[in-house]
Amino acid sequence: MTKTKAGRPRSEKAKQAVLNSTYELLTESGGKKLTIEAIAQKAGVGKPTIYRWWPSLADIVLEAVLNQADVKIPVPPYESLNTTLRQFLRSSMKSINEGDGSNLRYLMSLAQQDESFRDRFRENFVAKRQEILKSILRQAVDANDISSTQDLDMLVDLIFGSMWYRLLIGHGTMDEVFADKLTDIVIKLGNSDEVC
Amino acid sequence: MTKTKAGRPRSEKAKQAVLNSTYELLTESGGKKLTIEAIAQKAGVGKPTIYRWWPSLADIVLEAVLNQADVKIPVPPYESLNTTLRQFLRSSMKSINEGDGSNLRYLMSLAQQDESFRDRFRENFVAKRQEILKSILRQAVDANDISSTQDLDMLVDLIFGSMWYRLLIGHGTMDEVFADKLTDIVIKLGNSDEVC
C-alpha cells in the first residue's frame, strides 16, 4: 500500500481511534453494543475503511484488548524473579478484574468457533503475551534465579494456563493471593535443579 | 417425580440411549449434525421427553462427554504419584486426542456465552473432573508422596489449567511427553517442603 506523506499519520490516527472506540464500547456495555456500525460512528471512520484494515469484528477486539494489555500490564525492569514476576502477575490480575477478563473470555470463545480466527488469536495475541512473560523468565535465567535447564515454555503454560482456567471456569479468584502463589511456584520450580 | 416400578428402568434406558446417541453424533460429524431432532430420532425417544430431562442441547453434550470421560480415563488403584498420576494424565491426553478435545472446546465456548450454562458446566462437569484428580493427589498425601502442607487445589489448577490452555489455543501438543512433564512437575512441587 503506497501512502502520501500526509496519509500515513492520518490513517494511523484513524486506526487508533477505531481501537480506542472499540475498547470504550466494550467497557461501557460489556460488548453488547459492539458492532462495526457503532465503532465506525464513534471513531468517525467509514465502515469500508474498517473492513479494509481488519477481517472481522473479533480481530478489532483482539487488537484493542492487546493494546490495552500492553498499557495496563507494564513489564518492570528486571530486579529479581520474586519482585518482577510478582509485580507482573499482580498487574495482570488487576487488569483482568477491572473488566478485561470478559474481553478475554469473549476472544477465547470466538477462537473455538472459528478456526481461522483461532490461528490469528494464537499468533497475534497469545504468542505476544507469552513472549512478554517469557522475556521475564529469560532474564531470570540470566540472573541465575531460574536454572538454565528449565523448560521456560512449560513454565509459561503453567502460569497462563492456570490463569485462563480460573478466568474461563470461574471456580477460583483472580487476585494478589493467586498472583503470589503462582510466583512462589515458579521460584520453587525454577530452583529445583540446584544441588541442595 | 414419581415413577412406576416399570417406569424407572425404562426411563434410565432411554436416558442412556440419548447420551449414547449424542456422543455418536458428536463423533461422527464433529458436532455439525447435532440437533435435538437428530438425537431424538437416533435414540428413539420423543423430543418432549428430552426437553424434560435436560435444559438445553449443551447440557446433553455435557453429560454425554462426562460419561465418556469416566469410561475412557479410568482411575487406577493408587500405587505411587509417579505411576498413578502419569497413567491418569496419559489416558486424559489420549482421550483428548481421540476426539474428545473438540467436545471440550465446544462446551468451554458455550460456557463463555451463557452464564447459567457456565454455572452448570462448572458444577456438573469441571468440579467432577477436579474431584477425580484431587482424589489421586489426596492418596499421594496419605502415601507421603506429596507433603501435607501442599495446596492440592492449586496443583489441580496447574495441571488442568495448562491442559485446557494448550487444548483451547493449540500452541502445544497434548501427548505423553506433556503428560510426563506435568507428572514430573507435580512430583517436584509435592516434595518441595521436605527438608533436604
UniProtKB/TrEMBL annotation, chains A, B:
What InterPro entries would the database entry show? Homeodomain-like_sf, HTH-type_TetR-like_transc_reg, HTH_TetR, Tet_transcr_reg_TetR-rel_C_sf, TetR_C
Q: Mark the transmembrane ranges.
A: none
The record's listing under SUPFAM superfamilies reads: Homeodomain-like, Tetracyclin repressor-like, C-terminal domain
Assigned keywords, A-Z: DNA-binding, Transcription, Transcription regulation
Query: Out of the domains of life, which is the source?
Result: Bacteria
Q: Which residues form the HTH tetR-type domain?
A: 12-72
**One Pfam annotation, family name?**
TetR_N
DNA-binding region, residue intervals: 35-54
User: MF terms per GO, please?
Assistant: DNA-binding transcription factor activity; transcription cis-regulatory region binding
For this protein, the record's PANTHER family field holds: HTH-TYPE TRANSCRIPTIONAL REGULATOR RUTR (PTHR30055), TETR-FAMILY TRANSCRIPTIONAL REGULATOR (PTHR30055:SF148)
Name by which UniProt lists this protein: Transcriptional regulator, TetR family
Q: Which organism is it from?
A: Maridesulfovibrio salexigens (strain ATCC 14822 / DSM 2638 / NCIMB 8403 / VKM B-1763) (Desulfovibrio salexigens)
